[in-house]
């Protein structure tokens, strides 16, 4: 139990996030000064404020530090194989279309090994909210180079500094057809929460990239200090430019990070296109899968 | 709060107040809350919790305006604020 | 439960094995299929793509086989019976997620229409060389069930059985067809829906407050809750406890993994299925599966005409392997002869179970064609001496 200056004990389950978390699994395993907890708090707040039916919200994670999120939140949660959160989520969505499916995973998981699935889901405008936490490194496995690691940054597999160009994720998502693309850092707690709230209300492939500090690997291997030092860097060097051209959103090492909402469109989703197409061609003969899904009850 | 001129509704407005609740044993000493509290309510204490971290402590209890920024930014879900009775603007003191 | 008539194409048809397999899936109540084209399996999903829109099913061609397998696991967690279809190279790609399905105990069906391998091999020609991979393909300890149709009719029937077994044991079930059966066109009789028995997806009767996803209360198979019904469960590929929460301990590993293996192994006698013909009093028994069983029948006839007392043992369910029966037969015969369109895979199981009491003679065929009955007959004659 813990005390405040007023002398009253405050239990962990009194925290406003408690209803959204599996309190029997707290405290979480994330490192001190890691930004993941902050991102999860913003998501929980967005869930609360949006009023969505949490029974219908499924969360899918892959492997990695961010991938642990599905195990901590009190939602139908799926901790899947490395890189395959998006196709798994696709199966959930197509198997029971009324589900709100959120993918919550890291940069290495979603655009490294999962890159192919990322681009195709965006292309199809699959109805998924993808929260991609980008810490510029593979944290869980000890700090290896990631597809988002900025040039010159050090990692355990690029010990002399990264010489490989990284992804510009908002540009990648937008060019593949994502209909909502935003980037915030985990310092921008209000705007991130608002973006998540918007994401929850929209349809189609929605990407929210969240830049988060990794004190134990990224900061340490690059001698950048700790989590607070990275937060101060976000404070000094993040620029909010809503509507910016996604081509200009590259992140160079310890240079400006452009944040904002870059794409916000309404376009038919995969399922909407499928229904419209089949209705047009098959007419009365088309029997769509009902929103409650393809479970056939006993007869 | 310094005012360049007195707002017309000054006598009607109230400033939210909050009380900070710290779950000391969950803190991992990252200091995000101390750094970003807009009212400088918190400082890192010199006490240790059971895990050896220095948790924050409230140093300006009256200044908290229940903005919940600490609650939002804490990665450990170890701090939050609860609303207290609002105080009239006329009672606010200039920030130092 | 009787089959949903919307998926049952009752009648007498002239279908190839691939199409018949697709019809079997639809009759069994499968309503979500994710696949990727690969010869010689593609016709299964092509058939489903054409028929699904009229019965509330959703088919999606995914970007690769890894996505296909991941998608059908997700689909299955909504309570929808799900299936994917592939051949050798895709089967290899699916292995990691087959392991995920086994670990999460997700009912699903994976069809492998085997072709010549390894690697790209002979895309349009027959093989049976994925049999061991079917059992051991993914890393770690787990068990699956695999069935081997020998005809388009069986492709229909056994696909329904595959779905049923998958529901009963909450395990991926593999339909190990081969290209010959897949591309062979024969008469397929599809009965009326009322005559088809399907095991429905059964949801737990417990309330969300009492439900733990992997609590079995001494039974082998836990109760299922689907996403979206308010259960707020968690499932993971990590070693987990009864709550579905990851636990890193040898003790949890033992509880978790042993049950995954035991739930099939312990019920082997109930799951195995085989056909025996002429094994009583035989000196030699042919063990075969898939198209090879039909070829072997011809070889057996030739050998019998030359005075050899031969029996035929056809694997309908290849995994779990019918250990007990093979062991029993081994005690009374001279040899097993195992023709396979591979360099010797199921023969290793026969040899293991025979435990030296009878010889286990491999009759391999590297792939691309079927055995010549005459060669099988020669091997039988030699084995009888």
Describe this structure in words.
The complex is a heterotrimer of chains A (299), B (96) and C (385). Chain A has 299 residues and is an alpha/beta fold. Chain A has one domain (33-285): 3-Layer(aba) Sandwich (Rossmann fold). Helices cover 33% and strands 16% of the residues of chain A. Chain A contains ten helices and ten strands. In chain A, the strands form two sheets. An eight-stranded mixed β-sheet of chain A has the order 4-3-5-6-8-7-10-9, sandwiched between helices. In chain A, α7 links the parallel β7 and β8 (206-211). Chain A is globular, with a radius of gyration of 20 Å. With 96 residues, chain B is an alpha+beta fold. Helix content of chain B is 10%, strand content 26%. Chain B has helices spanning 32-36, 69-73; strands at 14-22, 42-44, 56-58, 79-88. Chain B has a two-stranded antiparallel ribbon with strand order 1-4. In chain B, strands 2-3 form a two-stranded antiparallel ribbon. The longest helix of chain B is centred in the middle third of the chain and has 5 residues, at 32-36. Chain B is elongated, with a radius of gyration of 15 Å. Chain B starts with 13 loop residues before the first strand and ends in an 8-residue tail after the last strand. With 385 residues, chain C is α/β, with parallel strands linked by helices. Chain C folds into two domains: 5-195, Rossmann fold; 275-384, Rossmann fold (3-Layer(aba) Sandwich). Chain C starts with 10 loop residues before the first strand and ends with a helix. In chain C, β2 (30-35), α2 (42-51) and β3 form a beta-alpha-beta unit. In chain C, α1 runs parallel beside α6 (152-169), α3 (65-76) runs parallel beside α4 (88-104) and α10 crosses α13. In chain C, 59% of the residues are buried. Chains in contact: A-B, A-C. The A-B interface holds A 1-6, 10-12, 14-18, 21, 26-28, 30-38, 41-42, 45, 186-187, 189-190, 193, 226-228, 231-232 and B 19-26, 28-32, 35-36, 49, 53, 57-58, 61, 69, 71-78, 80.
């Amino acid at each position: 139990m813990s005390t405040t200056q007023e002398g009253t004990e405050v239990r962990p389950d009194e925290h406003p996030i408690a209803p959204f978390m599996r309190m029997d699994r707290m405290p979480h395993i994330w490192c001190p000064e890691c930004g993941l907890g902050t991102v999860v708090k913003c998501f929980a707040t967005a869930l609360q404020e949006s009023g969505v039916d949490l029974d219908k919200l499924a969360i899918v994670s892959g492997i990695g530090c961010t991938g642990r999120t599905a195990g901590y939140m009190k939602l139908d949660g799926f901790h899947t194989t490395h890189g395959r959160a998006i196709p798994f989520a696709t199966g959930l969505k197509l198997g029971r279309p009324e589900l709100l499916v959120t993918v919550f995973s890291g940069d290495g998981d979603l655009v490294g090994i999962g890159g192919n699935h990322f681009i195709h889901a965006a292309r199809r405008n699959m109805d998924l909210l993808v929260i991609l936490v980008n810490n510029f490194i593979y944290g869980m496995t000890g700090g290896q180079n990631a597809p988002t690691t900025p040039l010159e940054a050090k990692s355990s597999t690029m010990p002399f500094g990264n010489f490989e160009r990284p992804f510009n994720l908002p540009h990648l998502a937008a060019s593949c057809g994502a209909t909502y693309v935003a980037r915030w850092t985990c310092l921008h707690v209000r705007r991130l929460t608002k973006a998540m709230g918007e994401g929850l209300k929209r349809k189609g492939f929605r990407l929210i990239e969240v830049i988060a500090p990794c004190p134990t690997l990224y900061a340490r291997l690059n001698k950048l200090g700790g989590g607070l030092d990275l937060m101060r860097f976000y404070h000094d060097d993040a620029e909010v430019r809503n509507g910016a051209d996604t081509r200009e959103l590259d992140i160079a090492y310890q240079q400006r990070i452009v944040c904002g909402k870059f794409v916000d469109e309404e376009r038919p989703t995969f399922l909407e296109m499928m229904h419209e197409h089949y209705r047009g061609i098959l007419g009365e003969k088309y029997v769509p899968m009902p929103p409650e899904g393809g479970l056939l009850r006993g007869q | 709060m310094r005012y360049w001129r007195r707002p017309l509704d000054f006598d009607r407005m109230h400033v939210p107040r909050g009380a900070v609740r710290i779950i000391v044993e969950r803190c991992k000493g990252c200091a995000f809350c101390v750094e970003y509290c807009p009212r400088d309510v918190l400082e890192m204490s010199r006490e240790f919790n059971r895990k050896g971290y220095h948790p924050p402590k409230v140093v300006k209890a009256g200044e908290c305006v229940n903005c919940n920024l600490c609650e939002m930014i804490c990665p450990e879900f170890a701090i939050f604020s609860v609303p207290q009775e609002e105080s009239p603007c006329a009672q606010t003191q200039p920030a130092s | 439960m009787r089959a949903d008539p919307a998926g049952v194409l009752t009648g007498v048809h002239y279908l190839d094995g691939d199409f018949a397999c697709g019809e079997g899936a639809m009759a069994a109540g499968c309503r979500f299929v994710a696949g990727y084209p690969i010869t010689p399996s593609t016709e299964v999903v092509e058939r489903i793509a054409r028929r699904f829109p009229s019965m509330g099913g959703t088919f999606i061609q995914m970007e690769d086989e890894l996505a296909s397998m991941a998608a059908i696991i997700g689909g299955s967690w909504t309570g929808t019976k799900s299936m994917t279809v592939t051949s050798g190279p895709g089967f290899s790609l699916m292995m990691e997620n087959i392991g995920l399905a086994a670990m999460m105990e997700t009912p699903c069906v994976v069809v492998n229409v085997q072709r010549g391998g390894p690697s790209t091999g002979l895309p349009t020609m027959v093989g049976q060389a994925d049999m061991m991979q079917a059992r051991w393909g993914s890393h770690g300890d787990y068990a699956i069930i695999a069935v081997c149709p020998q005809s388009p009719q069986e492709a229909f029937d056994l696909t329904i059985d595959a779905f049923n077994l998958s529901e009963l044991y909450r395990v991926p079930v593999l339909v190990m067809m081969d290209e010959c059966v897949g591309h062979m066109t024969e008469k397929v009789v599809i009965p009326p829906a009322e005559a088809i028995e399907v095991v429905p997806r059964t949801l737990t009767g417990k309330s969300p407050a009492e439900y733990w996803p992997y609590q079995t209360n001494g039974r082998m198979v836990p109760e299922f809750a689907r996403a979206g019904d308010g259960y707020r469960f968690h499932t993971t590929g990590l070693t987990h406890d009864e709550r579905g929460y990851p636990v890193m301990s040898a003790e949890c590993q033992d509880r978790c993994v042993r049950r995954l293996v035991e739930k099939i192994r312990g019920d082997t006698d109930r799951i195995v299925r085989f056909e025996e013909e002429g094994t009583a009093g035989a000196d030699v028994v042919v063990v075969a599966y898939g198209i090879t069983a039909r070829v072997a029948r011809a070889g057996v006839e030739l050998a019998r005409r030359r005075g050899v007392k031969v029996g035929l043992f056809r694997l309908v369910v290849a995994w779990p392997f019918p250990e007990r029966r093979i062991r029993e037969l081994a005690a009374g015969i001279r040899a097993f002869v195992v023709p396979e369109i591979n360099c010797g895979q199921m023969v290793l199981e026969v040899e293991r179970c025979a435990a030296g009491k009878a010889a286990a003679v491999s009759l391999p065929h590297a792939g691309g064609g079927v055995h010549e009955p005459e060669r099988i007959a020669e091997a039988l004659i030699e084995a009888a001496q």
